[in-house]
Specification:
Blueprint lengths: L9 H20 L6 H12 L3 E2 H8 L3 H14 L2 E6 L2 E9 L4 H18 L5 H21 L1
Helix pairs in contact: 1-5, 2-5, 3-4
């Protein structure tokens, strides 16, 4: 039987690309002592300061209880702190602490290295076009959902 060519339909290409991006990123973060999920959470917190825990749970596709446990681990390490949400006394917002800044800076460098590897051979115009198209695709799906 002849080998099948790689599926070039949208779903499998995205799934494979995301899996490979994550694999590269996680391989680079092994020495930090963070699970992949905690590394992702830290990046979200540093990129979106004062995000609500419930919003982060949705972004990471975990339950609020799971996200709460993840945050507990980061609080114990001194990387993040919870702040009371002034508009909802039941909610918390998250912010990186000074102690977490070196780790998040390292995560940002690792993410940039993974991004560079993934976009190797792309011109600046190609990169901008790709991001624009993916942004539109995301908007289409957000509007539909």
């Amino acid at each position: 039987m002849a080998p099948r060519s790689k599926d070039s339909s949208l779903g499998p290409v995205f799934a494979d690309s995301l899996r490979l991006l994550r694999r590269d990123f996680y391989a680079r973060t092994k020495g930090l002592g963070l699970t992949p999920a905690l590394a992702r959470l830290l990046l979200y917190v540093v990129r979106e300061p004062d995000s609500r825990q419930t919003d982060l749970a949705a972004r990471l596709e975990v339950t609020p209880v799971t996200l709460g446990r993840m945050v507990d681990r980061l609080v114990q390490r001194g990387y993040v702190r919870r702040l009371a949400d002034p508009s909802d006394r039941r909610a918390y917002r998250l912010r990186i602490t000074p102690a977490g800044e070196p780790t998040t800076a390292q995560l940002e460098r690792i993410a940039a290295a993974t991004r560079e590897r993934a976009l190797q051979g792309f011109s600046a115009a190609d990169r901008q076009r790709l991001l624009s198209l993916l942004g539109r695709l995301r908007s289409n799906l957000e509007e539909a959902g």
